[in-house]
Design a protein that fits this description.
α2 packs across α3 and α4 packs across α5. The chain is of the alpha/beta class. β4, α5 and β5 form a beta-alpha-beta unit. Strands 2-1-3-6-4-5 form a six-stranded mixed beta sheet. About 35% of the residues lie in helices and about 15% in strands.
Amino acid sequence: MELIVLDKSGKETGRKVSLDDAIFGIEPNEHVVYLEVKQYLAAQRQGTHKSKERSEISGSTRKLHRQKGTGGSRKGDIKNPLFKGGARVFGPKPRDYRFKLNKSLKRLAKKSVFSQKLKENNLKVVEDFKFEAPKTKDFIQVVNNLGLANKKTLFILGESNKFVYLSSRNLQDAKVLEYSEISSYDVLKANEVVLFEGSIEKIQENLRK
């Protein structure tokens, strides 16, 4: 599969790049993508939730009334979960929500989302460019030139590009990441994915392992 390389003004450069069908042309595996997105979102959770158990709240431990003969239920002390201000039954405790996925599965998930974007014609290639200084206005101009205004767009860099990253940081609909930082969630969430020309071979090399 070949894609035309655009420049930052949105015009064709006359060059094409070849995309590996084993990475950008597979049949997407939805379940694998689901697992990686689930792992990504689980890792974002702080897991600091906590409610107090009977031993942790203040209150008398005196038995409220005798066990039998009153006609009422057995209640124990005032910290019983049945009472207002009592403890919570099986309440949440701090925990780590992260879980492990095999590297091969995560690679398959990324191949799947890239293939889906290409299938939907939501993948573009732009030649590498840099800014002399961080300017949001210049980045907005590039986005408009590529016809991506008001679309959630993910730009994938082949190497660190500080000024391009800083120029995009104030924009709600644009996200800039290096090829080594991307997750299936980032690609899936974007309406359009723009690959810097220098990132393609690195992505392919990374996903062939």
